User: Fold this.
Amino acid sequence: MNAETRSLATGDSVSLEDGPLTSDRIATFARFGADDSPSHLDDAEARRIGYPRALAHGILSMALAGRLFHQALPDAQLIRFQSRFVAMTFHNDVLRCHATVRERTGDLVLLDVLIHNQDDKIVMTGWAELRCSS
Amino acid sequence: MTCIDRSQELYDRLVGKTFPAFEVLVTHDRVAGYARSIGDNDPIRQDTAAARAAGYRDIVAPPTFGFTITLLAAQSNLALGDLGFDMNEALHGEQLFEYGAPICAGDLIRGVQVIESVEDKKGGALLFVKSRFDLNNQDREWVLGMVQTSIIQLETAE
Assistant:
């Protein structure tokens, strides 16, 4: 469909931004994602547990990366996707996801993934392996 | 509630623990709502006709949806519960997905959780609880493997 993205080569990068993650958006995700823990919805409850304020869901960061893969390589199948949530994310954060091709061998693509917040702090690191249809 | 004595002996005993299998029916509303809430507006996630035209049984779950299946089956609280915690007290530390057949609306997913490791780190300040899940669909096709790490901040007073 998209010759330019299909030709992603080693070292090439793609990116996608999401946010601000409004409280409404987080509440909607809490409902459909089936994680309505008070620490995601209520500042006071989050502080009681020791967090600075109500958290965004870590998996929302991973979901942003998933959208980026699909956008950059629409015909590719995900094989594996690993993430480490290295810093907390919060309501109203703006997340920027970068995926860089570490290696491309035949129809296999290995991507390194980084997500930064609006303060350029890394909140998620990871990698994904995809198979491109030939 | 009984008081749980968190010790290396308990951690060692929990490794390898396999919980009873669980089942989750993946509904159309859940997949479409989930996709919208993560900002994924691809028609294959919202519209059955578009998904069928693309070769799927029905609308297709986004790649992170498997985590929600474990939450719908109340699985996170099982491993944490054995340690005297609940999900509200845990941070999501790491997540691995391994993909098999697609997960579509209407699927009846059957899964199993096994505790892979329980370790304290940073001199006992943090507790890492790692579980592996394997999910199959109604046709006994493997759809997803997951390894999830929850992190608990332990009170230093303990």
Notes: The longest strand of chain A covers residues 95-105. The CA atoms of residues 20 and 104 of chain A lie 33 Å apart. The longest helix of chain A spans residues 58-72.
